[in-house]
């Protein structure tokens, strides 16, 4: 006799078979990822027996490196669809430190064994041949029908994904130095995905706020960031090899949609990031333009030490404190020394220098540090014209230092074209519109940045800053308070909140915020100057002049922006001194000059002919 076997398992109200791989509840097909099906079949086939974790992982992911967390996700997904509970299990029992056991009674309904009798006459043989010939056709038609039903049912169940967050990739090694590498890989994967215009990708700043948080459910994270899907994973560097494992989950349900591992030589890490980004795009069925396909496939080899140094540099730059930015500069310079053709390192260096010379940091005079930022940005664009970060860096320098508005506009547009999801480009472009006295356009742009990076402190303050320049002070106050809800120790938010209070003549509240800012890490000079200006406006001229003397003493040891002094003199009604200090700020090439058209603190000077003449000079420079 010949036999044809098919396993069809039944447990509770569910059925699953080893051929069609469909989990059924009555006539309903329950959607599961392929790996979740594999996991269930292994457990069901071994019902009543403890299946060790290693055995399960080798069965489900043969010859593939994957973290234990992937197995845990599959088990979690199975428990959800089966209505199981980790404390009151009916189907899958966890055996601590060992594995899992399928505990529900399982029936094998596949005793559908086709018995073909030995042929003894030609007629019987003919009939059997006819049956044998028809059987494959019937099975093919049946399989095609089931596959079509699965596809159409599955596709209707698949969520539509137009937004996602890449959570910080885990470092499974015990080497703390690899944390920098994992963070760098997270940022680069985000940047690769952000190049897809049809997909909203949360920026690295917001994603990194979840680093180290173990117990927050994925649906909560998805809700906080307003995204459809969540990407989790790990990255491991060993010698000159790098392996990345990624998993895609539906945000609302935590259902695993896809998982895969990739491995490359460290020199090909850029290609590896692009490969992972392309795979995620395929899985969520997002439409790529021909240009986006080209950008995702374009890659170059990079010196491993240069890449690591660049990753460390971005890690420190993202912290934003002056001493951290200076550490970032050291690493960017180290990356450039290792690979002088590595464009991202020049963009990082440009951003670091630019922040040191910008208001709010107040570390170095702009005319000392901004030329270095411009040189690095130009080199980044020269080496790689398709690098959005390089064009953004150059746009910022053209705007805030060169006052070349047309040039800045072109660079911002080019950066956003290359990477529509690059939040920093949208954020800094908003400042361009402020400088053009177009606060409503600035608000639209900074809101785009905030949608991409909702937990970024600097972008949240940026939204408040745009509202402040639009003279919408109540809304600005509300936004600055929301920023402080994210981080009560953010000095810049306290100072800008105080500035909005000043415009509402709420001087006591303003002074309280400025004094808080002065006690926190950040620009002490910015906070002190605002205290002096508030003292002057509230009739405390003697105290305001005392602040001026303190600033003069400080200027002998550190950089004090001339605009800060000018604002205090303007509040005191000393127009001559204020205009002189504004002219000095012009000589410093202060980035504050681009805001003179809309800066509320200077409204008292707008009728002064000398101030109007200065605005004309600035307009000509534009």
Please give a structural write-up:
The chain is α+β, with helices and mostly antiparallel strands and 622 residues long. Among the domains are: 8-108, Winged helix-like DNA-binding domain superfamily/Winged helix DNA-binding domain (Arc Repressor Mutant, subunit A, Orthogonal Bundle); 163-301, ABC-type transport auxiliary lipoprotein component (Rossmann fold). Helix content is 58%, strand content 10%. Strand 12 and strand 13 (256-265) form a beta hairpin. The longest helix has 36 residues, at 122-157. The chain is elongated and about 95 Å long. The model is unreliable at 111-156 (pLDDT under 50).
Summarize the structure.
The protein is an alpha+beta fold. The chain has 26 helices and 13 strands. 58% of the residues lie in helices and 10% in strands.
According to DSSP, the number of beta strands is 13
Intertermini distance:
92 Å
Assembly form of the protein: single chain
CATH architecture of the domain at 163-301: 3-Layer(aba) Sandwich
By DSSP (H or I, 4+ residues per run), the number of helices equals 26
Q: Tell me the CATH topology of the domain at 163-301.
A: Rossmann fold
Fraction of helical residues: 55-70%
What would you give as the CATH superfamily of the domain at 163-301?
ABC-type transport auxiliary lipoprotein component
Output the CATH class name of the domain at 163-301: Alpha Beta
Query: Strands of the largest sheet, in order across it?
Result: 4-3-2-1-8
Rg on CA atoms, Å: 31 Å
Proportion of residues in β-strands: 5-15%
- The whole-number mean of residue pLDDT values reads 84
Unreliable stretches (pLDDT < 50, length at least 5) are: 111-156
Report the major sheet: 5 strands, antiparallel
Q: Which word captures the global form? A: elongated
SSE-based structural type: alpha+beta
């Amino acid at each position: 006799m010949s036999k044809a076997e098919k396993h069809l398992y039944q447990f509770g109200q569910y059925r699953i078979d080893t051929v069609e791989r469909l989990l059924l509840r009555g006539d309903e097909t329950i959607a599961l990822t392929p790996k979740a099906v594999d996991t269930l079949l292994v457990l069901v086939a071994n019902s009543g027996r403890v299946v060790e974790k290693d055995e399960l992982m080798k069965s489900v992911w043969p010859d593939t490196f994957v973290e234990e967390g992937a197995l845990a996700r599959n088990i979690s997904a199975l428990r959800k669809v089966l209505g199981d509970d980790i404390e009151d299990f009916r189907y899958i029992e966890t055996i601590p430190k060992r594995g899992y056991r399928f505990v529900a009674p399982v029936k094998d309904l596949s005793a559908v064994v086709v018995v073909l009798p030995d042929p003894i006459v030609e007629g019987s043989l003919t009939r059997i041949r006819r049956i044998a010939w028809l059987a494959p056709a019937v099975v093919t038609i049946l399989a095609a029908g089931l596959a079509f039903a699965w596809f159409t049912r599955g596709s209707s169940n698949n969520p539509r994904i137009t937004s996602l967050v890449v959570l910080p990739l885990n470092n499974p090694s015990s080497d703390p130095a690899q944390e920098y590498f994992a963070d760098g890989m997270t940022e680069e994967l985000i940047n690769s995905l952000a190049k897809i215009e049809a997909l909203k990708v949360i920026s690295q700043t917001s994603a990194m706020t979840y680093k180290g948080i173990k117990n927050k459910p994925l649906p909560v994270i998805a809700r906080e960031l307003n995204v459809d899907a969540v990407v989790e994973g790990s990255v491991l560097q060993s010698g000159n090899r790098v392996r990345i494992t990624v998993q895609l989950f539906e945000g609302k349900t935590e259902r695993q949609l896809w998982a895969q591992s990739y491995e490359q030589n460290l020199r090909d890490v850029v290609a590896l990031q692009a490969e992972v980004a392309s795979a995620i795009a395929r899985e969520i069925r997002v439409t790529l333009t021909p240009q986006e396909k080209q950008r995702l496939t374009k890659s170059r080899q990079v010196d491993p030490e240069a890449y690591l140094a660049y990753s460390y540099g971005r890690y420190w730059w993202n912290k934003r404190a002056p001493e951290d930015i200076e550490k970032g500069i050291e690493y960017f310079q180290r990356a450039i020394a290792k690979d002088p053709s590595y464009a991202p390192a020049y963009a990082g260096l440009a951003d670091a220098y630019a922040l040191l010379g910008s208001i709010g940091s107040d570390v170095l005079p702009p005319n000392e540090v901004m030329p270095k930022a411009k040189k690095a940005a130009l080199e980044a664009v020269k080496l790689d014209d398709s690098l959005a970060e390089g064009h953004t860096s150059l746009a910022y320098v053209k705007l805030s230092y060169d006052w070349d508005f047309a040039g800045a506009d072109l660079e911002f547009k080019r950066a956003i074209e290359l990477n529509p999801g690059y939040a920093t480009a949208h954020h800094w472009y908003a400042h361009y519109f402020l400088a053009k006295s177009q606060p409503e356009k600035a608000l639209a742009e900074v809101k785009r940045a905030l949608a991409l990076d909702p937990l970024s402190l600097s972008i949240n303050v940026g939204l408040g800053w745009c509202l402040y320049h639009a003279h919408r002070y109540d809304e600005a106050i509300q936004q600055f308070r929301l920023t402080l809800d994210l981080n009560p120790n953010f000095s810049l938010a306290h100072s800008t909140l105080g500035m909005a209070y000043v415009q509402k003549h709420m001087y006591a509240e303003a002074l309280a915020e400025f004094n808080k800012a002065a006690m926190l890490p950040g620009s002490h000079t910015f906070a002190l100057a605002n205290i002096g200006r508030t003292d002057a406006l509230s009739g405390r001229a003697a105290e305001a002049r005392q602040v001026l003397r303190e600033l003069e003493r400080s200027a002998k040891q550190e950089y004090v922006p001339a605009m800060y002094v000018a604002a205090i003199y303007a509040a005191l009604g000393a127009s001559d001194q204020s205009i002189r200090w504004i002219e000095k700020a012009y000589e410093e090439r202060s980035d504050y000059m681009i805001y003179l058209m809309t800066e509320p603190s200077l409204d008292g000077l707008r009728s002064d002919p000398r101030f109007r003449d200065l605005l004309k000079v600035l307009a000509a420079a534009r």
